[in-house]
Every structure is written in structure tokens, then in C-alpha cells.
């Protein structure tokens, strides 16, 4: 984790976090453990991995680190290793340093052929702590 | 526009709710307006920072876009706020999109639609 100018937005120094992750998931229908979520009315899933945490500045922060569109016909089983985040994990301030409790959750938006657009959160989640000091040399 | 494909396409009909008490969370699809612009944009929430008192600032991005929406916001504007939100997308129906696809794939259907439209105009000329 580094403290750099948020070059994607306001020119203030904010914490920038670097996270690598593995995802193993089986996206199933909520009611039936064996049935895939891709029924006749599910066109695609918009999957996203988000980090949620609290800081001094903000009671609630949520940052999407990675997302993926899974189409009907794609394998509903995910097995991704050593992934890097797709989007910059900038905090609004310096709240990542020493933050012990960043929760990573996998969620998805079910996009039907027609109908309701529900957001579903996966049942697994993992908590990661950020170190107390900044990295100065490691490149990402 | 095509910025939310393949979920939505031009001509799809979206059903929105606009309950102020609904919290804005990442992953949600919001309809927002940029100050000074008429056309609302329908994109997904990518990032939120919410204070204890409920004040929230958030960033959006179209699923089909490579970058977030900061380029679309007003000059000097880096975040959206609750006041910019016009609604939340809760459901949709592929509507006109289906009709144009059918018209492209089946010329006879296109002529039938045009013929019926012509009749409609004639009948309603008064």
C-alpha cells in the first residue's frame, strides 16, 4: 500500500491499496444448491469483487476491485488465481494505513431477459488487514 | 447508448424506483443527471464513501466502458451525490430493441410495421 496523489481524481494525497486475490466460486440458484443460477430467464451475471471498510473520514467505504460479465452458457464455476485488481483502490484520504478490517465480498447482479434486476451477495467473504507502513519500492 | 451492454441495449425499457432512503451501494445501477445536462445516464456504482451522517459521494462507470465516468462529469467534479440521482434501475423489459431487431431480420415485418404506421397516421389525421 502506498500514499500517492490520486491521479484519477482530486489532486490530494490518498492511500492506494494493492490487493491480489484468488476466487473460487460456484454460482448457484439460491434455493436449490445443485441448480445453476442460469435458468431460462437469466441472460447474464455481472460479477464484482468489492472491498468494504471504515475509516476516520468515512463511516462506510466500498470500492469495486474487479468485475466480470458472465454470460448464459459460460461456466458458472470460477477458479481464478493471483488476480490483480482491475480498478485503482484509492481511499478517500489515508484510511488504509493500519486498517485491520477490509472485507472482500463477491456479489453479482442478475440480468434477466426481462424482469427484476436483483443484487446478490455471495456467502463467502474474507477480511484482509493493511499494514501499518507504506511500501516504497515494490512495483505492482 | 451502448455503455451498459450486454446487459441493456438502446431501446430497452427500464423500471426505476427513487426512494431517497434507499442507500446507494456499489453494484447498483443508478440513473443520474449531470448538472447542466438534460440527458440522464444509466450506469453502475463503482465506489462509495459515506459519512456517519449519511452524506455520500460516489463514482459510476458503464459496464461496457473501459474507464469510469469522471470524464463525463462536470469540469472539476469528481463525485456524484444523492442529489444527482434520478432513480435506481430495478427491472427492465427489452422493448423497442426487439422491434428493430425483428425489422432488420424480417423485411416483411418491417413493411408490415411501416404499413400499419401509415394507416395509423391516415386514420388519425383529424
TrEMBL record, chain A:
Source species taxonomy: Eukaryota, Metazoa, Chordata, Craniata, Vertebrata
Entry-linked Pfam families: SPC22
Family: Belongs to the SPCS3 family.
Protein name (Swiss-Prot/TrEMBL): Signal peptidase complex subunit 3
Gene Ontology biological process terms, A to Z: protein targeting to ER; signal peptide processing
Organism: Calyptomena viridis
Subcellular location: Endoplasmic reticulum membrane
Function: Essential component of the signal peptidase complex (SPC) which catalyzes the cleavage of N-terminal signal sequences from nascent proteins as they are translocated into the lumen of the endoplasmic reticulum. Essential for the SPC catalytic activity, possibly by stabilizing and positioning the active center of the complex close to the lumenal surface.
InterPro entries: SPC3
CC per GO annotation: signal peptidase complex
Top-rank lineage group of the source organism: Eukaryota
UniProtKB/TrEMBL annotation, chain B:
The keyword Transmembrane belongs to this UniProt entry's keyword annotation: yes
Keywords from the named record: Endoplasmic reticulum, Hydrolase, Membrane, Protease, Signal-anchor, Transmembrane, Transmembrane helix
Function according to Swiss-Prot or TrEMBL: Catalytic component of the signal peptidase complex (SPC) which catalyzes the cleavage of N-terminal signal sequences from nascent proteins as they are translocated into the lumen of the endoplasmic reticulum. Specifically cleaves N-terminal signal peptides that contain a hydrophobic alpha-helix (h-region) shorter than 18-20 amino acids.
Gene (name only): Sec11a
Annotated catalysed reactions: Cleavage of hydrophobic, N-terminal signal or leader sequences from secreted and periplasmic proteins
Keyword Membrane attached: yes
GO CC, alphabetical: signal peptidase complex
Organism per entry: Calyptomena viridis (Lesser green broadbill)
CDD domains linked: S26_SPase_I
Domain Peptidase S24/S26A/S26B/S26C, first and last residues per copy: 3-72
Name this polypeptide is given: Signal peptidase complex catalytic subunit SEC11A
Compartmental location: Endoplasmic reticulum membrane
MF annotations from Gene Ontology: serine-type endopeptidase activity; signal peptidase activity
Biological process per Gene Ontology, one example term: signal peptide processing
Family: Belongs to the peptidase S26B family.
Assembly description: Component of the signal peptidase complex paralog A (SPC-A) composed of a catalytic subunit SEC11A and three accessory subunits SPCS1, SPCS2 and SPCS3. Within the complex, interacts with SPCS2 and SPCS3. The complex induces a local thinning of the ER membrane which is used to measure the length of the signal peptide (SP) h-region of protein substrates. This ensures the selectivity of the complex towards h-regions shorter than 18-20 amino acids.
PANTHER family noted in UniProt: SIGNAL PEPTIDASE COMPLEX CATALYTIC SUBUNIT SEC11, SIGNAL PEPTIDASE COMPLEX CATALYTIC SUBUNIT SEC11B-RELATED
Bilayer topology term: Single-pass type II membrane protein
Superkingdom, taxonomy of origin: Eukaryota
E.C. number: 3.4.21.89
Amino acid at each position: 500500500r502506498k500514499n500517492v496523489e490520486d491521479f484519477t481524481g482530486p489532486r490530494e494525497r490518498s492511500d492506494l491499496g494493492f490487493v491480489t486475490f484468488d476466487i473460487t466460486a460456484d454460482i448457484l440458484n439460491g434455493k436449490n444448491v445443485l441448480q445453476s443460477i442460469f435458468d431460462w430467464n437469466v441472460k447474464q451475471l455481472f460479477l464484482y469483487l468489492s472491498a468494504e471498510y471504515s475509516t476516520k473520514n468515512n463511516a462506510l467505504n466500498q470500492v469495486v476491485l474487479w468485475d466480470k460479465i458472465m454470460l448464459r452458457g459460460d461456466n458458472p464455476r470460477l477458479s481464478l488465481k493471483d488476480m490483480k485488481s482491475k480498478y485503482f483502490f484509492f481511499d478517500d484520504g489515508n484510511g488504509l494505513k493500519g486498517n485491520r478490517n477490509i472485507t472482500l465480498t463477491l456479489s453479482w447482479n442478475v440480468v434477466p431477459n426481462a424482469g427484476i434486476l436483483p443484487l446478490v451477495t455471495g456467502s463467502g467473504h474474507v477480511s484482509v488487514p493493511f499494514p501499518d507502513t507504506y511500501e516504497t519500492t515494490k512495483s505492482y | 447508448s451502448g455503455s451498459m451492454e450486454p446487459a441493456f441495449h438502446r431501446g430497452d425499457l427500464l423500471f426505476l424506483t427513487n426512494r431517497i432512503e434507499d442507500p446507494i451501494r456499489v453494484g447498483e445501477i443508478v440513473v443520474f443527471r449531470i448538472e447542466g445536462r438534460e440527458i440522464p445516464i444509466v450506469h453502475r456504482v463503482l465506489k462509495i464513501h459515506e459519512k456517519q451522517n449519511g452524506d455520500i459521494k460516489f463514482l459510476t462507470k458503464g459496464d461496457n466502458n473501459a474507464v469510469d465516468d469522471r470524464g463525463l462529469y462536470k469540469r472539476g467534479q469528481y463525485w456524484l451525490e444523492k442529489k444527482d440521482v434520478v432513480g435506481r434501475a430495478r427491472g427492465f423489459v427489452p422493448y423497442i430493441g426487439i422491434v428493430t431487431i425483428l425489422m432488420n431480420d424480417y423485411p416483411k415485418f418491417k413493411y408490415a410495421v411501416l404499413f400499419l404506421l401509415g394507416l395509423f397516421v391516415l386514420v388519425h389525421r383529424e
